Amino acid sequence: MSWKEENNSLKRTFEFKNFIEAWAFMSKVAIIAEKLNHHPEWSNIYNQVNITLTTHDEGNTITAKDREMAQNIDDLL
Predict the structure, then answer these.
(1) pLDDT band at 77 (very low <50, low <70, confident <90, very high)
(2) What DSSP assignment string belongs to 16-49?
(3) Under a CB-based contact definition with an 8 Å cutoff, are residues 46 and 19 in contact?
(4) How far is the C-alpha of 17 from the C-alpha of 23, rounded, in Å?
(5) Whole-number Å distance between alpha carbons of 2 and 10
(6) What is the pTM of this model?
(7) Which residues are CB-contacts of 51 (< 8 A; sequence separation ≥ 6)?
(8) Containing H/E element for 50?
(9) What Pfam family is a match, any one (predicted)?
(10) Which residue from 7, 4, 6, 14 is spatially nearest to 73, judged by alpha carbons?
(11) Can you give the residue range of the structural domain that contains 59?
């Protein structure tokens, strides 16, 4: 599955074997977000992590920041 462009944002759902793997993934994403100073909107339910990327300070639209963040997240897999 890849990122979907929807409502001026990039969205993707990630599924893992269990909650611990999902949480570990979120921890890694959090480190990337801090390094890039670009933080996702996200939710976690058991083994699923839903991520939405949009650039709020650019009028809630997709920018290079979002594409870079998405690529960095993909690189974790």
Answers:
(1) very high
(2) -SSHHHHHHHHHHHHHHHHHHT---EEEEETTEE
(3) yes
(4) 11
(5) 10
(6) 0.94
(7) 11, 12, 13, 14, 29, 40, 41, 42, 73
(8) strand 48-53
(9) Pterin_4a
(10) 14
(11) 9-75
